[in-house]
Amino acid sequence: MIRPRKPVILLASVVCILVVFGIVSSRNEKLKAEIQEEANHLLYQWETLEKTSKFVHKENYTSEISPEPCTVINPLTNQFFDLRPLGALGNDGLVQAWNARGYDYGRNFSIGICSTPLKQPQSLPESDFEGVTNKSEVGGYYTDTTGHKKSIGQISTTPKFRGRKLVLEYTDGSVCEGFKNDGSLKKSTILSFVCDREIMTKASISYVGSLHDCSYFFEVRTIHGCPTAAKKDDKAIIWIFLFICLCAVAVFFGGGFIYSLFKYNQGRQSVSHWKSNSFTAGVKNLAQVSQREEIYK
Ligand SMILES: *[C@@H]1O[C@H](CO)[C@@H](O)[C@H](O)[C@H]1NC(C)=O
Ligand SMILES: *[C@@H]1O[C@H](CO)[C@@H](O)[C@H](O)[C@H]1NC(C)=O
Ligand SMILES: *[C@@H]1O[C@H](CO)[C@@H](O)[C@H](O)[C@H]1NC(C)=O
């Protein structure tokens, strides 16, 4: 066997110390999150690369990467966004309602993200959500001055990017009043998501404004408005760790092999015509090295 010499041991220990240092420093939450995000981004890019190379000959490029409900891929950066933790989809079906103060509008809003904010939509009185086709799909509402609930749009589970802006649109809510038509105009809502890593809560929804009591606009500040990993949360970091370990092992053994080969060659050169550059010589050399080591035992 080839025994590793001093410089090799030194090199290997330096690599090990670096690895340990890397792991220890990655306990720092922020750094860890950043490393993870970067790793996940790389993984994700690799996956989409695989997918696109598979489907490169298909005509409909955009439709073939169809993300799960309430998730979206930014077509500009290829980053993955997951809004599921803000609604029932990411909370085992538990209803999650977000409240937004209406200020000058005079009404407060209750909004669900990708799922309804209503706990028991079917047991509501008839007068609530009049004209709405399915009360289970109300995405947001307010209670008007007469005490009746009005839908500001039915849920959608397909967030999308408008340029750099991540938006979710709810349409087909309660009928807009005050319009001289057949009542076909329905309330609708735009939720605009803003990435906020400093926020203490999961999300904070602010009412921005409404037009003609018919369309409503909200801003949602949340960490889930920031790009994340598709799925493999912890796998990526494990793979990086394994890769570093593999490198360390390769350096350890590869270095030991080259070092002993080099040492042995130096010794041989004075007594014989040694072709140090040829590959067969290297293999022969290895055999001889191990033979010699055996003799010593
Ligand atoms: C591709 O998209 C077009 C519209 O963009 C649609 O008409 C067509 O049916 C789609 N083809 C397939 C195979 O999905
Ligand atoms: C809206 O909520 C605020 C507190 O968040 C409360 O003071 C106010 O009375 C509420 N308005 C209505 C119309 O319920
Ligand atoms: C209403 O929506 C819910 C949830 O999407 C669905 O399960 C239910 O079948 C719908 N009801 C009707 C009458 O369409």
From TrEMBL:
Q: What keywords are assigned to this protein?
A: Disulfide bond, Glycoprotein, Membrane, Signal, Transmembrane, Transmembrane helix, Transport
Protein localization: Golgi apparatus membrane
Task: Describe its membrane topology.
Answer: Single-pass type I membrane protein
The residue range of the signal peptide is 1-26
Q: One biological-process term from Gene Ontology?
A: vacuolar transport
Q: Give the InterPro entries listed for this entry.
A: Man-6-P_rcpt, Man6P_isomerase_rcpt-bd_dom_sf, MRH_dom
Is Membrane tagged as a keyword?
Answer: yes
Entries under Pfam families matching the protein: Man-6-P_recep
- Name a single GO cellular component: endosome membrane
| Main localization category | Golgi
Q: Which residues form the MRH domain?
A: 68-228
Asked if the record carries the keyword Transmembrane helix, the reply is yes
- Transmembrane regions: 236-262
Superkingdom in the source lineage: Eukaryota
Q: By what name is this protein known?
A: MRH domain-containing protein
Q: Which organism is it from?
A: Ogataea polymorpha
